[in-house]
């Protein structure tokens, strides 16, 4: 039997029903997300539009013509000094794990973010059976940078998060830690 190849591409509005369905599974059945109410399709459209307006990627993995997963980079925090740091989110459809889609999405997301003004990527991973996610991020150069203990409560239990971080390929010009020079990031 021939292997089916995935296609990683920017998300479009027609993908958002599938994206919402994938996310709904994780909201209802796991602690991978701390959301407790699934987001409707119109909320996903707003997210797609907001990320596009900020020049940040929202990607889907298509397998045999169906959306089998998605990934996006969003601002890490709203305060202005964090503007060069993004947080990644990667979700695969149930039954689509173990096929390399997570790695393909993460690699494409890193490449896309390296072409933006982002300098750092953060992964916040719920530490409840997250070994595969941690291993995936390590494989792509993320380092463990911390653990937040019992910060989430879902499905009757307390959940830790593991924080991982990676410098992106493009480093914007900016003041060096040992310098007083100023930056022009639009160069």
Overview of the structural elements:
With about 190 residues, the chain is of the alpha+beta class. About 25% of the residues lie in helices and about 30% in strands. Strands 1-2-3-4-5-7-6 form a seven-stranded mixed sheet, with helices on both faces. Strand 6 and strand 7 (about 155-165) form a beta hairpin. Residues about 170-185 have low confidence and may be disordered.
What oligomeric arrangement do these chains adopt?
Answer: single chain
Count the DSSP helices.
Answer: 4
**Secondary-structure element order, N to C:** EHHEEEHEHEE
**Beta fraction of the residues?**
25-35%
Average pLDDT, rounded to a whole number, is 88
List unreliable stretches of 5+ residues. 170-187
List the helices and strands and how they pair.
Blueprint: E1 6-10, H1 16-29, H2 41-53, E2 58-63, E3 66-75, E4 85-92, H3 101-114, E5 120-126, H4 131-139, E6 143-154, E7 157-167
Parallel strand pairs: 4-5
Antiparallel strand pairs: 1-2, 2-3, 3-4, 5-7, 6-7
């Amino acid at each position: 039997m021939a292997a089916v190849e995935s296609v990683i591409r920017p998300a479009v509005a027609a993908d958002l029903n599938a994206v919402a369905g994938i996310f709904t599974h994780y909201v209802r059945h796991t602690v991978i997300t701390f959301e407790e109410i699934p987001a409707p399709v119109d909320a996903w459209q707003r997210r797609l539009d907001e990320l596009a307006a900020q020049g940040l990627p929202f990607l889907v993995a298509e397998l045999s013509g169906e959306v089998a997963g998605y990934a996006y980079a969003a601002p890490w925090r709203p305060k202005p000094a964090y503007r060069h740091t993004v947080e990644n989110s990667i979700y695969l459809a149930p039954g689509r794990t173990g096929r390399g889609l997570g790695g393909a999405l993460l690699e494409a997301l890193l490449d896309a973010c390296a072409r933006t003004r982002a300098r750092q990527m953060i992964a916040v991973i719920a530490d409840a059976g997250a070994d595969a996610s941690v291993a995936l991020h390590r494989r792509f150069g993320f380092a463990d940078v911390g653990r937040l203990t019992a910060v989430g409560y879902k499905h009757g239990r307390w959940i830790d998060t593991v924080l991982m971080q990676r410098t992106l390929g493009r480093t914007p010009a900016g003041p060096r830690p040992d310098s007083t020079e100023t930056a022009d990031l639009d160069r």
